[in-house]
């Protein structure tokens, strides 16, 4: 039976709001990680059967099938195709699922999965602002009469449902920054980050969003986004950011033929739907479904990456699963590092498989909530341990 393995995984640094990557075209940012990915393993780009790329804001500079444009900007042969997909925040995690499925089915021998988002250049929600109508048809409005789909509302609902106080949310957020800072100091991201050349001749080589000087008191002074009894603030939510990540996927047999040593196998993958109004609780059923599919339990998993879209998303997942906080987002998450929408799924996967290799963990699980009420979940098996 064919399988799908990850031979290499890289990512750009994550640029903060109005930071270094704001000057970089998202096509060029994508091309940078594509070239770095293949340079690391010495694979010629002409052997890649497809580039499956996630991107949420597919307008302006990110329109016109950014995957194909990135292939061309990277200087790869014109024979290499690319396709761009959008599953909200899970776009590049879904890209990995599609690439793995293509390899397992035999449609691909070698594929690249990943994604990008330049939120400075293409602001979140840009596609809704171009004057071409409302994506919610009358049928949807009738089904959810009088209800506005809003992620802030969903984050507040989770905080209430799982009894997550404002203090808990801020404490969790502070830990995210502390863990990310410690990871940088320990060189934990060195193996996954590739520098990005900036138009001014400099290079960005580090994640810009980590706030080492933040404190619980400073976080507590931030006003809630929902004024009356709100708990969600800019401090306990993910950051607006820019970034890209890419993973090289092939079968174990093909890796052996090329003399390559895979990092991890895509052991199981799934996607679920959930209430589109609260919309952010999907990682809970997604985790249960992927574990059942893999015939594993929570105790079998050595590390978890649960996307920190909001602290309440992770808090709800922790309360629902009973997993210890220390096993989740050990190197920090999107609250500290940033959440470049279409690139985040691939970023989490990249960080997770490198972390599993460093720590000698056999299994790792990644999951993330998505707009519209969905969630992806993936289990990776470390192939670098006996």
Descriptive overview:
- The chain is built from twelve helices and eleven strands.
- With 386 residues, it is of the alpha/beta class.
- It has a nine-stranded mixed beta sheet with strand order 3-2-4-7-1-8-11-10-9, sandwiched between helices.
- The mean pLDDT is 97.
Structural topology:
Blueprint: E1 5-11, H1 26-41, E2 50-54, H2 66-73, E3 82-85, H3 91-105, E4 110-118, H4 138-143, H5 151-161, H6 166-185, E5 196-197, E6 203-204, H7 216-220, E7 242-250, H8 252-257, E8 264-273, H9 283-294, E9 303-306, H10 311-321, H11 334-337, H12 341-359, E10 363-370, E11 374-382
Parallel strand pairs: 2-3, 2-4, 9-10
Antiparallel strand pairs: 1-7, 1-8, 4-7, 5-6, 8-11, 10-11
Helix pairs in contact: 1-2, 3-12, 5-10
Describe what is shown at a glance.
The active site is at 89 (acyl-thioester intermediate), 339 (proton acceptor), 369 (proton acceptor). The chain is α/β, with parallel strands linked by helices.
Indicate the percent of residues in helices: 25-40%
Radius of gyration (CA) equals 20 Å
Q: Measure the end-to-end span.
A: 21 Å
Main structural class: alpha/beta
Number of helices: 12
Overall strand count:
11
Active site: 89, 339, 369
Enzyme class: transferase
Pfam families: Thiolase_C, Thiolase_N
Domain Thiolase C-terminal: 261-381
List keywords for this structure.
11 strands, globular, single chain, 18% strand, 386 residues
């Amino acid at each position: 039976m064919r399988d799908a393995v990850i031979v290499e995984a890289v990512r750009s640094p994550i640029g903060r709001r109005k930071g270094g990557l704001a000057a970089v075209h998202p096509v060029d940012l994508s091309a940078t990680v594509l070239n770095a990915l293949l340079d690391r393993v010495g694979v010629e780009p002409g052997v890649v059967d497809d580039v499956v790329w996630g991107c949420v804001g597919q307008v302006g500079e990110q329109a016109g099938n950014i995957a194909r444009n990135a292939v061309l900007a990277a200087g790869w042969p014109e024979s290499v195709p690319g396709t761009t997909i959008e599953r909200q925040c899970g776009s590049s995690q879904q890209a990995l699922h599609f690439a793995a499925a293509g390899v397992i089915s035999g449609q691909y021998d070698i594929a690249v999965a990943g994604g990008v988002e330049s939120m400075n250049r293409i602001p979140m929600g840009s596609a809704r602002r171009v004057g071409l109508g409302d994506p919610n048809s009358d049928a949807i409005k009738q089904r959810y009469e009088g209800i506005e789909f809003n992620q802030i509302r969903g984050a507040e609902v989770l905080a209430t449902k799982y009894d997550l106080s404002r203090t808990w949310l801020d404490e969790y957020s502070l830990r995210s920054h502390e863990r990310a800072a410690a990871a940088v100091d320990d060189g934990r991201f060195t193996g996954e980050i590739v520098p990005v050349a900036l138009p001014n001749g400099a290079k960005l080589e580090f994640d810009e969003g980590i706030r080492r000087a933040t404190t619980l008191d400073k976080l507590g002074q931030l006003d809630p986004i929902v004024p009356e009894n709100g708990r969600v603030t800019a401090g306990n939510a993910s950051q607006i950011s820019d970034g890209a990540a890419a993973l090289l996927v092939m079968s174990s047999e093909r890796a052996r033929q090329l003399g390559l040593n895979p990092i991890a196998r895509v052991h199981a993958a799934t996607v679920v739907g959930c209430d589109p109004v609260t919309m952010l609780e999907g990682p809970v059923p997604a985790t249960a479904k992927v574990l059942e599919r893999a015939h594993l339990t929570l105790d079998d998993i050595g590390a978890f990456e649960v996307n920190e879209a909001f602290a309440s998303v992770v808090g709800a997942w922790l309360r629902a699963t009973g997993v210890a906080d220390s096993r989740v987002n050990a190197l920090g998450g999107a609250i500290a590092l940033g959440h470049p929408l279409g690139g985040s799924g691939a970023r989490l996967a990249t960080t997770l498989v490198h972390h599993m290799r460093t720590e000698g963990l056999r299994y790792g699980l990644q999951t993330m909530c998505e707009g519209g009420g969905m969630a992806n979940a993936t289990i990776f098996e470390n192939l670098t341990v006996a």
